[in-house]
């Protein structure tokens, strides 16, 4: 049984932390290393004031971080977008607009309130960003992939999208990682926090070919690639982060059903049996009067993204918190989990 020591290092967003980029309140914060070596972190619904729902609404936005600062607390060095110093929305659309014409396999008239990021990945000299086009929280009309060829500064649609109901709604929230075998592996779930996880893979050089994606499924008494994907971990999950850390595979997941954020070592790689895998609870959900961030007790937590620079014995995670009653705190925080044997 492994031991776990959890410490909050700092708030990553909010007043005093991201004012220079026009960010008061925001959440999420999935991160990857850009081809040029800096950290690229993507955030969801973002506002100039600290409260959710204030002025300056945009999503997604991107901040750049210093990789040398991770162990002491990630420090921001800039933001993506044409505005000097201001974190702009990196995808072109209008909030609360109706989309005319055919897009993402859907007929026009669809109302999109926001587009939320789920994860990003670097393959060669290109970064890819997966987003959900939503009408309110939990109602996903489609998901799609965007691409950056300039280290996360600017983004364009790749044209690849899936309807929100793909695979029974289990292909909305996605996390992915590049394996040493040349495949990108992805775990997916719904955005309603009431579904389990599915596993998929696609050759990295065919990432944008929908027909090249295949599921990991149980059929004929055995698990195999190419089967209809079946749940690899039942439950009720939210945000996910699949990463190789020093050549070992790890999953960080918001387990909404059990109100916690878990780290899951995957000794057999992406096809590890997650139903029997060890689970390390890093963040335990609690009430607002019972918080203790010093030991990982957090009210209304979600997210849980593994930061570049983590090691198998010292994992750094981006965890969100939103007081949906008062609309503050609405922020991303960095926690360190020291893992012993």
UniProtKB/TrEMBL annotation:
Span of domain DUF4185: 14-336
Top-level taxon of origin: Bacteria
InterPro entries listed in its UniProt record? DUF4185 (IPR025442)
The record's section on Pfam families has:
DUF4185
Q: What is this protein called?
A: DUF4185 domain-containing protein
Q: Which organism is it from?
A: Actinomycetospora chibensis
């Amino acid at each position: 049984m492994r031991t776990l020591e959890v410490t909050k290092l700092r708030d990553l967003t909010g007043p005093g932390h991201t004012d220079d980029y026009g960010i008061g309140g925001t959440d999420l914060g999935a991160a990857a290393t850009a081809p040029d070596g800096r950290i690229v972190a993507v955030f969801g619904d973002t506002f100039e004031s600290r409260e959710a729902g204030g002025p300056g609404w945009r999503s997604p936005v991107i901040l750049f971080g210093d990789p040398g600062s991770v162990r002491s607390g990630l420090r921001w060095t800039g933001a993506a977008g044409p505005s000097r110093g201001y974190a702009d929305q990196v995808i072109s659309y209008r909030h609360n607009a109706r989309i005319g014409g055919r897009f993402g396999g859907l007929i026009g008239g669809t109302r999109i309130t926001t587009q939320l990021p789920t994860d990003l990945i670097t393959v060669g000299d290109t970064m890819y960003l997966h987003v959900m086009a939503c009408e309110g929280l939990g109602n996903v009309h489609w998901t799609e992939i965007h691409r950056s060829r300039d280290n996360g500064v600017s983004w364009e649609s790749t044209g690849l999208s899936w309807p929100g109901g793909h695979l029974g709604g289990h292909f909305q929230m996605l996390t992915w990682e590049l394996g040493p075998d040349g495949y990108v592996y992805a775990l997916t779930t719904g955005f309603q926090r009431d579904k389990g996880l599915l596993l998929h893979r696609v050759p990295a050089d065919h990432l944008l070919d929908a027909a090249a994606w295949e599921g990991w499924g149980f059929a004929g008494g055995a698990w195999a690639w190419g089967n209809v994907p079946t749940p690899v971990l039942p439950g009720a999950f939210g945000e996910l982060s699949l990463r190789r850390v020093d050549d070992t595979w790890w999953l960080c997941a918001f387990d909404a059903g059990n109100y916690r954020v878990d780290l899951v070592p995957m000794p057999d790689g992406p096809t590890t049996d997650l139903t029997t895998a060890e689970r390390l609870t890093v963040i335990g959900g609690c009430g607002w009067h019972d918080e203790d961030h010093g030991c990982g007790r957090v009210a209304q937590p979600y997210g849980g993204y593994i930061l570049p620079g983590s090691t198998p014995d010292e994992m750094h995670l981006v965890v969100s918190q939103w007081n949906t009653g008062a609309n503050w705190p609405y922020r991303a925080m960095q926690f360190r989990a020291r893992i012993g044997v």
